[in-house]
Amino acid sequence: MRFFLLGTAAFLTTAAAAPGPADLGHSLTAFGAIQAGNSTGTIPPWTGGIATPPADFKNSYAHPDPYAGEKMLFSISAGNMAQYTAQLTPGIIAMLREYPGYKLNVYPSHRSFAAPKAILDAAIANASRARLAADGNSVTGATTTIPFPIPHSGLEAVWDHLLRWRGYQAHFTSYAATPTAGGDYTLIKNDTSLLFPYDLGGTSEQGYNTLYMIKALEPPLYAGGMTVARDHVDPGANPREAWIYSPGEQRVRRAPEVNFDTPNPQADSLITDDDLDLFNGSPERFDWKLLGRRELYVPYNDYDFGSPAHDYAEILKPQVINPDLMRWELHRVWVVEATLKPGAHHIYARRTFYYDEDSWEGLLADQYDRRGQLWRVSSGAPICYYEVPMISNSANIFYDLQSRRYHVRGMRNHGSTLDFVQPKLQFADFTPGALRDAGTR
Predict the structure, then answer these.
(1) Domain spanning 2-440: which superfamily?
(2) pLDDT(16) > 70
């Protein structure tokens, strides 16, 4: 391997012979991750992940922590972060500097990602047939999962994130909150349904990637509000379709504004609609650059964060999430930079994304304003959902450095549900008619 420097960060690239499709399933995993661990042994080899549920797994509500007995290796704080800066993102460095008491509790690394054999096989097949189209705003020749396990550009990498393996469907209730700077908050309970036609074996030419419906259940200020959004695999040709139902108006209306940098109404305008999932929707407004692979401390195997052992008051602290409930590990990630295109509109001038090399799940993101100043820092809390299996964030946390506030969504510690099997969702569940019917019940 050889190293080159970009700013202060060391990126890993491949010397001489570049990897090709024949390496997938051998020196590379089916998803393009380096199969071997690192030279120091601090990142282990990938050996298949957690492919079956542990013996004490009962249902999707609570996922037992397979690493609960492990001891923390060390903690990174403002006082000692100088010795770790090569393994920290600019956003995390800023968090450590700006928030007294914020820290990263670092544990042994585990590459927990697993996926069904059919998904792994599809990724390997996609490597030889998938292509970018429509100036990179769509993909052709791919099916079921990531199109580019060996990405050669930023656009290919972000499409791997957008089309990664997420299961076939999900239905869950969860909580969101946006604490004030002083720590006061109101819990918002949402009911969410997701259907992934592309993951069900669809091709990149057949239409839909993600179908999404969210209904606010609590508190009364939000209750009854609903949104349906449908994302195509080719958003360049077929933009997002979205509708909202307002209980006050008791009608459904088309909502093209549910997209890009529209402020999310549940987050006190601290996040944009395309911040969700750390990035979603069309990549068309940004120029994308693949910066390479990097070893970083990232949130990973965060089972404790979602444990029923913790109530929401223990999680939601002033200015930052309780750092003692987050687990951090050293992992290799793909680093992708998005720069706003000349003439395009977005409140972010630049964004940097850090994608897990094993799963293509978004783990961290940094967002910059038009002055070039770091503005917001986004974080996932990934776990392995044994029953699928897959790696996915159990919650997303969005920090706003300017207001010193944050928004968190997806919490399922108490009073929530999660099911990847029932009910059997269909396309008809994600239509204006479905919104109208739900609003009159």
Answers:
(1) Lipoprotein localisation LolA/LolB/LppX (2.50.20.10)
(2) no
